[in-house]
């Protein structure tokens, strides 16, 4: 039972965070998905500072770790899939840390607090781990868990996620559409995670 849930958790994570961000944003007056980062929902002094990590970060950390564990436990797994699983577990741990240490209410502050710095580093770990996972999957040895077409999809995922990440960095300088490009970059990787989850369920 636990293994079945763990295998599906890649898809569950995507659905959970999509609904969770939507619900938390509804509790944040005048929240702007296009121009505000997802982390601003849990920022220090925000209306949803306490509830956002409870809705999103803490349960999501568990769900990501479950999927990483599912990859590591696969029968006839290989080193690449094991590393991929570890990276997703690291992403889950980063999600917990980012929830426990909130960012500052002003995401563009020139003098961030220690909590904000820890949050930012956790975010960097999250970004890197979920970007490296499809790279490793794309170049992993032949396996029933990674069909040829999914290798191509993994490469496309990395390209799109990186493209939108660069767009987000440029948008941050103008302080406009940062939330829009952040969501595109992250949800592309979540879509990859969902597809991977569905593949594992069918094998």
TrEMBL record:
InterPro entries reported in the protein's UniProt record: DUF998 (IPR009339)
Claim: Membrane is one of the keywords in the record: yes
Keywords: Membrane, Transmembrane, Transmembrane helix
Bilayer-spanning residue ranges: 6-25, 54-72, 78-101, 121-140, 146-166, 186-202
Name assigned to this protein: DUF998 domain-containing protein
Natural source organism: Shewanella corallii
Source lineage: Bacteria, Pseudomonadati, Pseudomonadota, Gammaproteobacteria, Alteromonadales
